[in-house]
Every structure is written in structure tokens, then in C-alpha cells.
Amino acid sequence: MDVSVDSDVLEKLHTKEATSLHRISDDLSACGVGKIVDLPQIIVVGEQSAGKSSVLEAISHIRFPVDSGVCTRFATELIFHHASETRIEASVRFADKTKPSQTFQRQKFHEDDLPDIIKEAKEHMGFSQDGKDFSKDVLRLEIEGPKIYPLSLVDLPGLYHTSSHNQSSGGRDTVDELVAGYMRQKNSIILVVVSANMNLVSHSALEKAKTIDPQRRRTIGVITKPDLALPSNAKEYIMVAKNQESAHKLQLGWHVLRNRGEDETSLEARDKLEASFFEKGAWATVPGEDLGIANFRKKLSGILFQHIRNSLPGVIEDIETKLRDRQDELTRLGTGRSDAKARRSYLLTIASDFQRLARDGCNGRYNDSFFGGLEDEDLKFRALLRNFNRVFDYILRTKGSTENIVFSEEDKSDENKLPGYLANFLGRYPYEFPDPKRITTEELSAELESKAAANQGREFPGSPNADLAMQLFKKQAAP
């Protein structure tokens, strides 16, 4: 596979410390630990034609679709991974989760190929040729290689407020929801792009960022098209660029970039013209570290590193947890058993331990940790057996007959009341037998007289049938 990107430019988005962290993370990941899963992603947010795609293009030297029309109709994720082998994969991830992702493999990727990939993705998404719709489907382009380090860039559709023949109110809602969804992701570094050729109050992205990131910890402002700013706007934007405008003050500050003109085909030429532009004029009063793409890459590299460093406590905790788990597993495995003698000895030890525990359980000696503490009872065999005997006795006395003979209806004896500890035991091991029917001695006498009369044989008067007692006993002994 052939990947042709400006690796020198992409490398500038990583500090030496960040590069070292990624290398260590890769080494640890090979052992199944220490993977930095919360990698930051750079997203661009702003009005249509504010220059969002141009900003990503300047950052990465990868050609994002840029023209005077509406280009970005869906989210495009450009994701770089460090790997030993080169791999390129483009996929469409549909908003409808019931539809599987549509993957289209590519054998090469050059920095000018992204517009063609986006065009192919539109076909998979079912866009009409006149492009009237916006979509929540996502194009994801993943590039891996040995000279590439983790980086995620996300190009988003521009915000708009007025409907037209090719931009419906429904499309506006789709864009708002899509943009807000990416902004809410905690690993998103939000680039709020505002163009200096528009009034500052016209940029609704500023208020959207303030709502979603009220502490302004993940938001960095980017002013584009300074060369097209009207004199009436330039002064206000310069104040914003210096981070001196209280309403739009950001923790990460602001930066000013000059967009590539349509007649400027070379990105290197674009960078040189930008540097020349900021050397003179009103914009030269802005601190140098807040001007130009070279300084912006440096600023972003620091922000990216800080984000990665903030995730380290979770990585360290993961490593410590996995290390404890492995140590526990080694302890449970015991010493090595490399030959038959060692394995035989190990099995004999297991058998001996089993015999000892079984003997202790039968004898009611529960000092081994196997049996648990004072409150545990599930493995204490002798105690279980004795409790089963007590419960069995209780069941026989209370449910071991068909009828419960009492002297009167008011007779309520407590002699069969179950102790509390046995009530809990019986709750875990229930005996599903019905309660006997209560019958008074008077009722029983009448019943016996009736049955004796109904079952008379050749006995003398006053003597019952010899078989009657046996039948009555069997009936009474049934549960």
C-alpha cells in the first residue's frame, strides 16, 4: 500500500513527550495494558464558508474539499494510527445503527485524494446528485503506518440559519444536532472558526461552544480571512485575537490564520504568503505565537499532549490493576510443575487438602479460611447437617400429619415455635408441605364414631373393625 502524506507537518503536531508516550503506550498495548483509549480529536465548528476545511487543510497539508459552494454535507473523520504495517481503510458509518458499515478498501492514499473519497462516500450514503440533503452518516478514513502517530481530525458541516432552495430547515436541524454531538464528546478539542469578513455577532458557533463547554477548557478560537476583514471589523477581531475581549475570552486563547486563495495551488506557498502577511499591518500587533499556521501547529501539539497527559492516571490505574491480577494468578498457580514428579506431588497435595477439609467439615472444625468467617455457614458440613436434623424434626412435628388435633378452637400452643436462626435456614432450604387441618377432640370423636359405624364387621358390639385403626393411622400420617 502507498501512503503519501506530509509526515514532517504531521510530526509537528506531536511534542517529543507525546511521541514518547505513544511509543510507550504501543509497547504496553502489546502486553494488553496501558492503552490510551481517550485520544483527543480536533473538530472544527463554525458558520458556512468560515474556512473550517481550510483550517484542517493548513494543519495537516491534506486537501480537504474547499470552494465557494457548500462542500461539507456530513462529518468526515480523518484518523491516523501508528502501526508496523501500512493500512488504509475508508468506511461509511450510518446513523441508522441497523445498517452495517460500508467499507471500501483503498490501495493508496495521497494528500490530494480526500475529495475523491468523499465523492465515493456520498454515493454510499445515497445523496442525490444536486446535493440537497445533509446527513448524520459519517465518513471515516483510517490510515496506519510506521511513521504515523495518532491524530484525529473531524471536518463538520457549517452552521446556517436561513433556508434556501438547497438548504432546508430540516437540514439545519440535522447539522445542529451533528455538530453538538461531536462538541459534547469529552475528547474533542473544539476549534471555533470565525471569519473576519463577517460581523463577530454573526458567528453562532461562539454561543454554541459557550453552552457546551462553559469553562472554555476544550475550546480554542481561530480567526480566518484576516486579509478580507473590513476596517470596521478588524479592530474588534484584533482585540479578540489578543484574548482581551471579555465576552469571548478563552482559556486556550485565539489564533489567526490566513486562508489559502483559490489561485494558490501549493500549500507551501500558502504558508509563505501567510507569514509575509502577518509581518506588517494591524495584525502584526497580535503576539507572534498567535499568528500563522506554524505557531498554530505548535500550540495544538501542546494542547494535544496536555489532553493525553490528563488521561495518564486512568492508564496507570489500569496497569496497576492488571499487574495485581497477574500476581494473584501466579500466586494461585503456585510453583512450577515441569516434570511428572512435581505434577504428581501437586495432585497429591490437592487430594490431601480435600481430605483434610472434608474431615474438618464432618468433625465441625472450621478454622481453615475455606469455611469462611463466623457468619458464613454454606460450607460448614456438620453445622448444616445438625440444622437439617432440627428442621426435619420441626417439619415432622408441624406438618407430618393430615390433621392437627387440639382440645378447642382457641387452643394455640407455642411448643412448636421455630427459633429465629432455623427460620432463616428453612427460608434457604424450604420444605413444600401443606399445613395440617386443625380439628378439635370433640370433632375427631364424632368423626371416629361415624367411620366406626360405617366400617363395622363381625366384631362384638362396641368393638371397632380391626382394619379401621390401620387405615386411620395411614390417613393421619400422610403429610
Task: Give the full name of the CATH homologous superfamily of the largest domain.
Answer: P-loop containing nucleotide triphosphate hydrolases
Instruction: Name the overall outline.
Output: elongated
Runs in which pLDDT lies below 50 for 5 or more consecutive residues are: none
State the helical fraction.
Answer: 40-55%
Q: Please state how the strands of the largest beta sheet are arranged side by side.
A: 5-4-7-3-8-2-9-10-11
- What would CATH call the class of the largest domain? Alpha Beta
Count of the domains: 2
If you compute it from the alpha carbons, what radius of gyration comes out, rounded to the nearest whole angstrom?
A: 41 Å
Query: Helix/strand/pairing class, anyone?
Result: alpha/beta
CATH topology of the largest domain: Rossmann fold
Q: Count every helix, treating DSSP H or I runs of 4 or more residues as helices.
A: 15
Into which percentage range does the β-strand content fall?
5-15%
Give the beta-strand count: 13
- CATH-level-2 architecture of the largest domain: 3-Layer(aba) Sandwich
| H-E order | EHHEHEEEEHEEHEHEHEHHHHHEHEHH
